[in-house]
Design brief:
Layout (H helix, E strand, L loop, with lengths): L9 E10 L2 E7 L8 E2 L2 E3 L6 H13 L3 E15 L5 E14 L10 E8 H4 L6 H13 L6 E2 L1
Parallel strand pairs: 1-6, 5-8
Antiparallel strand pairs: 1-2, 1-4, 2-3, 2-7, 5-6
């Protein structure tokens, strides 16, 4: 199914990686949100569990590995075109990930990958759902599992 103008919402995942008060972000290299910062992530592939997908996307976009700690939150992104038609519709499952160490390096469709202090991250040009997620992180502390928006 195409990402643009899909027949149904698409399921995506995001990796919420925290290290010493900082959060891992990538600068998106592809639409939607090209040039904006977001948590690493992407679509769940056919036959893949969301947990497998988030590990794969983290590795592809940053070169890092990590263990899934639990679901942080569920977010939705809907973008309409100038005619009111739905151009993008994603249901996003964002997981807390315990990183195994290492230095992030951008890969696949990420133009950059690095850790930011949470306060500094909120000043960046972020995707809409990443801004919501970071505000939730700041507002609810380090481990609010099972949050749904």
């Amino acid at each position: 199914m195409p990402r643009e103008y899909p027949e149904y919402p698409l399921v995506g995942v995001g990796a919420v990686v925290l290290r010493e008060g900082s959060v891992l972000l990538v600068r998106r290299g592809a639409p939607p949100g090209r040039g904006k910062w977001s948590v690493p992530g992407g679509l769940v592939e056919l036959g893949e569990t969301p947990e497998e997908a988030v590990g794969r996307e983290l590795l592809e976009e940053t070169g890092l590995r990590g263990a899934v700690r639990g679901l942080f939150g569920v977010y939705q992104y809907v973008e309409r075109d100038g005619h009111g038609r739905i151009r993008y519709h994603f249901i996003l499952l964002d997981y807390l990930i315990d990183p195994e160490g290492g230095t992030p390096r951008p890969g696949t469709d990420a133009e950059d990958a690095r850790f930011f202090d949470l306060a500094d991250a909120l000043k960046l040009d972020l995707t809409e759902t990443t801004r919501e997620l970071l505000k939730d992180l700041v507002g609810f502390g380090p481990a609010p599992l099972g949050r749904c928006r």
